[in-house]
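Q: Here's a chain of 438 amino acids. Please give me its 3D structure as tokens.
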Amino acid sequence: MAITEIGVYAHLRPVDIEALGDELDAIRRDIVAQRGARDAAYIRRTITCQRGLDVTSRLVIALSRGTVGWALGTAGLAVAKSIENMELGHNVGHGQWDWMNDPEIHSGTWEWDMAGLSSQWRYAHNFRHHVYTNVLGMDDDIGFGVMRVTRDQPWRPRLLLQPLQNFVLAALFEWGIALHDLYSERDRAATPAGKAAETKAFVRKIGRQLGKDYLLFPALSGRRWRRTLAANAAANVARNLWAYVVIFCGHFPDGAEKFEPAVVEEESKPEWYLRQMLGTANFDAGPLLAFLSGNLCYQIEHHLFPDLPSNRYAEMSHRVRALCAEYDLPYTTGPLLRQYLLTLRTITKLALPDRFLIATSDDAPETASEKKFRDRNECGDGRPGTAPGSTGRSGLRSALRALARQSGPLGRRRSQVRRVEPADLPVPSRALEVAGCV
């Protein structure tokens, strides 16, 4: 089932994991030392461009008379909303720009243009998800409480409708996230009064959001209010679909592993780093696609350094990729379409009871553990693939290749993901700091 011993699964000795952590710390220190005017100019320019695109698109929708003008304006509005949601709301909410000490661009003051409250999202996302990434029972983002994305989650008859539910969630993604964050925040509230206060704040935010998109702007359009109303609804759905694809492709394709709670009981910072690298996935993107995704095409780098400026992820990715090659670890990435199709395959497949599935629960594309390596390539220290006294490293990437060769067609199917070469929870305190929670 899920991974219980991360070092054994990664085929790394403790000394290797510590060394990997030191290398990643060095990357962090370098970026912190370098950030400055160029990064500040980037985020301010992004805000200006996003707001300009939003206003321009609304004017095109309101002033044009034909279908083409409406379609262009709606598309522009959808892009503006996507930029605000991904590159601005998400990344500002992570505290990536708090170092600027600008009250407008600060995680504590930014309220994004979507249904949920930023404050509730920060707890559910920055804390529960980023500190406990893919840890069963601790990371609520494993299927967001409604989807089955690993065999560690028990099958229920309602999951037969999961493929349909997936598409509904995609179209209404902002509302799913908003409710997910509310429930997480209510769970944290110590008193009934606290729970009620969170619900009231949530209802107020919904009222403001619905009022802006479906009352205020249509009213400003006068007799053409239907045109504006339809554009706003279509832009919101398009933004939801894009955000859903980006988030799901970073967390649920093959190679994004899941972990048992035991892995965090005495987890060191280097082990936390390693869990982030194994539990997330990238997708290939050029500069434009990266920008439109909020640079979350670099999900591995984002989970390693969630509070560093997103415009730095591309340059960090070269160093992280090189470290994966040095330590013989997979760097899980691939074309966006492939990553999504792999995710869709998992969602569709896990709608069925386990008795209809072929691969074992320890060696399936979406669910794996260190048990799949037993009796295959053991050596003296009990960690498969680590030869005592050897100066070279034979890590997880080599072990997966060897396993694929031994496993026949199933193993070949599993290797289709391209791995590029060259609260009352136990809290890793440094991980909390990195995730922007303290």
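Q: Can you summarize the key feature?
A: The CA atoms of residues 2 and 409 lie 23 Å apart.
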